[in-house]
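Standup notes
- DV: blocked on the single-chain target, sequence here:
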Amino acid sequence: VAVPTFFPYRAREMLRRVKRRELEFTSSRTKARYLLVSQKAKDEEDAKNLLDEVVSSHSYGDEYIPAFHALAKAAPPHTEARLASHLDARLSYLLPRVQEYVASTREAWKRVGSSLLILEQKQLEEGEAEDQKGNDESKDVEMSA
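- DV (later): unblocked, structure below
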């Protein structure tokens, strides 16, 4: 007896994959909360709020690194949840440093721009002085002739 299905085979596989990923992420959140409480001696509610903030938004910074490490440690090995948590922890570490480098680079370019402006002004002043000197010499030549 053939029983018709509502979803094709690929759609069912995709739903199973989504469900598996959802279980990976939710189970690791619970384990990560306990890891954070034991590591940082925080209140369980604070750890839960921190993990919710990390998971629900793109929060990167030094204060979120322990949460990402806890999520990675709690996730099953070789899963997308573990890889994503490790990647987010690395980004959380690198992003503030990149912002510092960008700010220092902008400051350096401002200094370069001001130095170039001063150099251009000096060249203009020297050019005007030479023009004036050349005009004075031509006037002397005209007067003597």
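- Follow-up: The chain has a mean pLDDT of 82.
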